[in-house]
Amino acid sequence: MSGDSLHILVFPWLAFGHMLPFLELSKSLAKRGHRITYISTPRNIQRLRQFQPNLSPLIHFLSIPLPSVEHLPETAESTRDVPSEKVQYLKKAFDGLEAPVSAFFKSACADKSSRPDWVIMDFAHHWVPKIAEEYHVPCTFFSVLISPSLVFMGPCSELLGGYRTSVENFTVPPKWVPFPSNVAYRLHEARGFLGVFDRNASGITDIERLASVVNASKFVCSRSCHNLESKWLSLLSKLYEKEVMPIGYLPPSIDKSQSEKSSKAAGELDVMDWLDQQPVESVLYIAFGSEACLSIELIHELALGIEVSKVRFLWAFRKPKGISDDTRILPEGFEERTRDIGIVTAWVPQMKVLAHASVGGFLTHCGWSSIVENFQFGHPLVLLPIFIDQGLNARMLEDKNIAVAIPRDEETGDFSREDVAKVFRIVMEEEKGKEIRHNAKLLKKVFMDLASYENHIDEFVEKLKKFKLDV
């Protein structure tokens, strides 16, 4: 390694929507000759290696077991492994990593050759800055949320107790946004979001965690891009009173070994063969990520809307957590009635599906990782946000006129099969959706501007070098 190479600790929260972008960032840094120590738990690291089997030798995984916590299943190491009501116990277990992480710092900092130069941490890591400060290692917070979502949440003073005291306050843009904006929650979304202000089993709120890491960071970096978020990034820097750097959207690459996996190996339909038989841009791909899920009632309504629409579809369907394998979730006879226009399967190689010529649209829960993957291929979106930042992401996408949201009841979040069918036809077939389809293809150029992404990472690395502390 050259003399100006860095040793960087990369430490994400225990959710794959966080761990995978942190890993993509690690790959970009290792490509520039920097040594990475990526911290997580044994099972998560095992799964990450399966996702990314051909990593740089400069990326070293540090595996630290989670302590046992009452009400948390023994095998649970990520938010994927537990229902939403048990994530609070995962946070409690995560905070139990403080002692072994502190021991690692002590050992690593005893030797100049292994001493870390930086810690890149996530929102949950309120105890990390204190350890890092003890050993004179600077920290930066890497947000997987985009800048409009962070702006909506507000400055640290607001996070720790501000003017928004009712659920209705979160259904309009906040007063610190000086330009026209539609980025705000619907009423049913806002009710779900308010849980981040509640003290949970870990003894601290999610908002307190976020405020703590923002305050302790030398600067903040965001999974954002100047091309789409320039005014938001500038505003966020003013709100945080420190520099906020975009590091690009970190689009994942299609790993050859992963892309060649056939779902037949898991006893599933061969979705790629089926796609090969469909007309160009005729199939709507439907997926809600690894954690977001609808109630059984809304799954039924969505399925019946698909049937009414008669739009070709590929549905990557996961049963809601806690539902036994023998429980019927889809409407009786749905798969038989729709077999001529679509298939339902438990697993698909998502990147390869999105890249397929027959796919012409994507129904998404609005998780930012799925959105980034989609716009590498320029598909218009059908939006059905479910929790956390997803509603805010949806507003931004609607504002760009590249997506259509399924209309929902403000109070309950319910929707009708008729509206599902109507939106499907607009996005996939009707003249009314022509401009949306055109705009989505144009946006592909922004998301695939790899030179811009490389520039973002280069600027980020220069910032790390500039702020490096000499000890």
From TrEMBL:
<dbReference type="InterPro" id="IPR050481">
    <property type="entry name" value="UDP-glycosyltransf_plant"/>
</dbReference>
<dbReference type="GO" id="GO:0035251">
    <property type="term" value="F:UDP-glucosyltransferase activity"/>
</dbReference>
<comment type="similarity">
    <text>Belongs to the UDP-glycosyltransferase family.</text>
</comment>
<protein>
    <submittedName>
        <fullName>Glycosyltransferase</fullName>
    </submittedName>
</protein>
<keyword id="KW-0328">Glycosyltransferase</keyword>
<feature type="signal peptide">
    <location>
        <begin position="1"/>
        <end position="17"/>
    </location>
</feature>
<dbReference type="InterPro" id="IPR002213">
    <property type="entry name" value="UDP_glucos_trans"/>
</dbReference>
<keyword id="KW-0808">Transferase</keyword>
<dbReference type="Pfam" id="PF00201">
    <property type="entry name" value="UDPGT"/>
</dbReference>
<keyword id="KW-0732">Signal</keyword>
